[in-house]
Amino acid sequence: MQRILHLVVPSVAAFLALAVCLRGGAAQQDAGWSGYEQLGRYGPTPPVAYRPPPTAYRPVPGPPTQPMPASRPQSWPGVYPGPSGPPRHVPRQTPPAAAELEPCEGALILAKVGPEVILASELVASIDGLVGQKPGLSGELKEKQIQALSAEVIKSIDELATRGNDRRPPTRSQLEREALIRQLLKLAIETKLIYHDAMRTIPEENHPDIKKKFKAQFEDAQLPKMMEEAGVQTRQELDRKLRARGTSLYRQRQAFMERILAQTWIRQHVKAQGEITYDQMVEYYRNHLDEFEKPARARWEELMARFSKHGGKEEAGAAIARMGNLVASGVPLAQAAKAHSNGLSAAEGGIWEWTTRGSLVSDAVDRVLFELPVGQLSPILESEEGFHVIRVIEREESHCTPFLEAQVDIEPKIRQEQTKEALLGYVARLKEEIPVWTIFDDRPQDEQVSDRRGRPQR
């Protein structure tokens, strides 16, 4: 600003000085006419106005300097062949075609729910929430499953984006990936429907507070868990990892907010009506007896000598005999298993938790497991992979849970079924009120038939 004022002030000063000079000349000219103005009439000839001597004028500046003629290479279009030659005809130059725009990654619209859209990146972002609902997954295993599932989803989305008018029937792997997309998209549409219904029902002035609350919940609870599972220390590192999977930290936060709001809205507005009666529980028990059938199961210990670890059957047979003799002489089976066994549970002392009848690969081991008296060492058993010696710790025979014991579990099952039915009815009503479109709606009819069959047309 000071530099601009520095340039402007001298110009204003020069302008004021020029105005003063011009005003002085005008005053002198007015003085030469003042007598006639006072009389209210003009004389025969007006007096000549005063003119300053020629020395008072500044020298008249010369003409402006003309620019030097431009010099252009002879090869340029429009250049004359010579100093006096006529101009050549230059064909009209066509401007270069604009570069073809490439779609932004993750911006493919997979569905529309009323005024809302579901982008490809949103579908990828929903995978974290789905995998996170599976119990018993460690951070590393969960991260691997998310990465693998994200890669399949991104590959299927790329196929959808590039398929276009390709009339070739899809391959089996393409149909399997597309089935995954359809399943994820169905869940995303239902979540978006419920989220949209909640936001249109909640007063608009409360929207900022709701978003602020869920954002704080994401920052305090979800974000640290995501950083730990991804093995990163900063938000920037996490965002880079997420973008490598086709999503982003912003998308994850938005998906978290929509998912939690939808779940909260369902708990508050979709509920089973009335109390569960005794007759309802009895009817459920009779109609779902298979749920209360309990197969035989056992907890057991194992010693194993693999053929591949001992160079053949003869050496493996000698090894399993030595392990069995150690246990028979009083050495704890868990100690012998940790020191000598080649079984999958050797590091845990050879212990296997509850195993149901018919779930083992080896028929011989499976049969003896449910015939051997509890606490007794088995004879040497042979499988395709080696020799085994087992001992049953605890066993339960197959049975049907009595109604008196089962009714504790029946009531929440009935309530869960009623809530599910109410939810399906609620979503169906929303679909009637709110228009829904998916990328699969524009498919040719024959291709949709092929998809429903679950296999490509050959």
Describe this structure in words.
This protein has 458 residues and is α+β, with helices and mostly antiparallel strands. 54% of the residues lie in helices and 10% in strands. It has 14 helices and 9 strands. The protein has helices at residues 2-39, 120-132, 139-163, 172-201, 207-230, 235-244, 249-269, 278-287, 307-310, 313-328, 333-340, 363-369, 403-433, 445-453; strands spanning 109-113, 116-119, 293-294, 297-306, 351-356, 381-382, 386-396, 399-400, 436-438. It has a 4-stranded antiparallel beta sheet with strand order 5-4-7-6, sandwiched between helices. A 3-stranded antiparallel beta sheet has the order 2-1-9. It has a two-stranded antiparallel ribbon with strand order 3-8. The radius of gyration is 44 Å and the shape is extended. The two termini are 76 Å apart.
How many helices does DSSP assign?
A: 14
Number of strands: 9
**Sequence of secondary-structure elements:** HEEHHHHHHHEEHHHEHEEEHEH
Radius of gyration equals 44 Å
Q: What oligomerization state is this entry in?
A: single chain
Strand order of the largest sheet: 5-4-7-6
User: Helicity range of the residues?
Assistant: 40-55%
Distance between the termini: 76 Å
Q: Whole-number average pLDDT? A: 77
Low-confidence spans: pLDDT under 50, at least 5 residues? 1-50, 52-57, 96-103, 445-458
Q: What spatial form do the alpha-carbon principal axes imply?
A: extended
Alpha-beta content class:
alpha+beta
